[in-house]
Amino acid sequence: MLLTTLLEITAGQGLAAIGSGLAAAGAGIGIGLIGGGALQSIARQPESLGDIRANMILAIAFIEGPALFAIVIGMLIGL
Asked: Is there a contact between 63 and 30 (Cβ–Cβ < 8 Å)?
């Protein structure tokens, strides 16, 4: 049963799904690293909380944008 299911998925659909998954995983890892670095920076210099928070949100937006585009394109290719 699994083999027939795998054979029904064409190469384009499978690669699109893999690409979408990698884009989501990469964005999650990047956002996690940014959050961890921001928390360490705030712990070392609590007085710079506002600057660190603003830069963190901006960096997260820069990561999330291309990741969403990659996910949408991967889903459109898979249709």
From this structure: yes
pLDDT digits (tens, 9 = 90+) for 13-59: 677 777 777 888 888 999 999 999 999 999 999 999 999 999 999 99
Report d(CA 63, CA 79) in Å as an integer: 25
Amino acid making up residue 76: L
Q: Candidates 1.10.340.30, 1.20.20.10, 3.40.50.460, 3.50.50.60; correct CATH number of 17-78?
A: 1.20.20.10
Count of C-beta atoms within a 10 Å radius of residue 20 = 20
Measured in whole angstroms, how far is the alpha carbon of residue 22 from the centre of its chain? 8
pTM to 2 decimal places:
0.73
Residue 48 and residue 51: Cα distance in Å, rounded?
Answer: 6
